[in-house]
Amino acid sequence: MNEHYKFINIPLPYAYNAMEPYIDEKTMMLHHDKHLQTYIDNLNNTLSEYPQFQNWTLEQLIMNIPSLPNEIQTAIKNNGGGVFNHQFYFSNLAPSTSSYPVGILGEAIENEFGSYQSFQDQFKTAALSVFGSGYAWLVVDATGQLRIITTQNQDTPLPLMMCPVLSIDVWEHAYYLKHYNKRADYIDDWFHVVNWNNANRNYMRCVIPLKFVQ
Ligand code: MN
Question: How confident is the model at residue 153 (pLDDT cuts 50, 70, 90)?
Fold first, then answer.
């Protein structure tokens, strides 16, 4: 990912069919090349007339929406969020290898939720509860605690001062071609292709500043 404007759609670090049979090739292709591309194009178009924000990172833009000019706040929220959320979602997928949480994240999930099974149940319930379009997230809150939250549309956990560890995109475009309206089946399949190594790295990035900087 380039740091700031002009944002580019970097290729996925795996083949479009790498998540088969859990996430189908056509969905991955459309999701990355069309849906994410549109958010990137719209974000770049919005920033093209605001050079004073062109050296801001994506996170800076998302964290500082209230201080942006009124006329671009909604566009940055929706499209900046759309870019962040999709890049985060795609980075947390991996071909089905380790389907179990690893490292200190694995321990933290057991401590917080009792067991991986219990975490899965709660995460699935949260993902099913999103009305319309949005995401379910595993995050670290400002006190360092693991929590499951949901967000609407392309809202991100960042302005809530929550550090994302893992997310599932539950917009219909993420699953409709394969699963039609059955979001629950998509969630079950998605668990097979979670990149737990990456989630563990995210978790360490979230908690290490809390433990050692304060
Ligand atoms: Mn999506």
Answer: very high
Which tens digits make up the pLDDT trace of 154-183? 999 999 999 999 999 999 999 999 999 999
Q: Measure 34 CA to ligand 1 centroid, in angstroms.
A: 10
pTM above 0.90, yes or no: yes
State the distance from the centre of ligand 1 to the C-alpha of 19, rounded, in angstroms. Answer: 16
Which residue bears the tokens 């970097």? 10
Q: How far is residue 101's CA from residue 201's CA, in Å, rounded to a whole number?
A: 11
Q: Where are the beta strands (DSSP E) in 103-207?
A: 134-140, 146-152, 163-169
Residue 1 confidence (pLDDT) above 90 = no
Q: State the residue for tokens 């309206």.
A: 181
CA distance 210 to 214: 6
Q: How far is the CA of 173 from the centre of ligand 1 (A)?
A: 6
The sign of the dihedral angle between the CA atoms of 47, 53, 59, 63 is: negative
Cα torsion 55, 57, 62, 68 to 10°: value is -10
Residue 212 has pLDDT above 60, yes or no: no
Distance CA 127, CA 169 (A): 9
pLDDT bin (cut points 50, 70, 90) of residue 196 is: very high
3-state secondary structure of 156: coil
